[in-house]
Amino acid sequence: MIALIRYTLATTIHGQRYLAPVLLFCAGVGISSGSDSGPLPGVYALNSGILLVCATWLTMAVISVEDPTHRAITVVAARGPVKVLAATIAVSALFAVGLTIIGLGLPLLMNPRPITAADLPAGALAHLLCASLGLAVGLLCSRLVIRRQGYALLTALALVTAALLTTGSPPNTLFKGMANTNKATDVLPTAAALLPIGLAVLAVAAVITHVISIRRD
């Protein structure tokens, strides 16, 4: 499994399709971090929203690195599609964790703000929640599920927009709490409670993607 993850990561880096979402995230975080945009929880909420978009794009890019023929060869070599899909999710998660570190650290470097013991944990949980949901949307909108790229893009945009703007959704609930408080301790319990929901959504999306891809293959 480790060898398959290394292969997927090397193929992704060689294909360079990860560059656009990574650069978009760095640019967005740089803009939010460099301005006087208020307390740290609000900045982390904004960065998490950017991560949701970029994690979706990254996951779709990682899956699209190999064309169907090469993917079929990889599936045979790996002795099953489950391992290939798991490696894809693992590589996408590695990129998302790297972006999370940037999203947490850059605001502290570019525009020093007062920081409390709860700021980083709350920010990390918000980023991980959005990363999980972004991976889930990316899986469901990848070519394993939606073959036509135009439809996949429109579906991804609709799902990401709904996740960010729909009242009561996990990201929207957390963002409102973080934007309306100066103390991360007020939202830390909410962030901790919402993260398992994001992980559960990712697990369900992985199962759906696997079932649909198997039937189509």
TrEMBL record:
Alphabetically sorted, this entry's keywords are:
Membrane, Transmembrane, Transmembrane helix
Say if the entry is tagged with keyword Membrane.
yes
Where do the TM regions start and end?
44-63, 84-110, 122-141, 150-167, 187-212
Q: Which domain of life is it from?
A: Bacteria
Name of protein:
ABC transporter
The record lists the organism as Actinokineospora globicatena
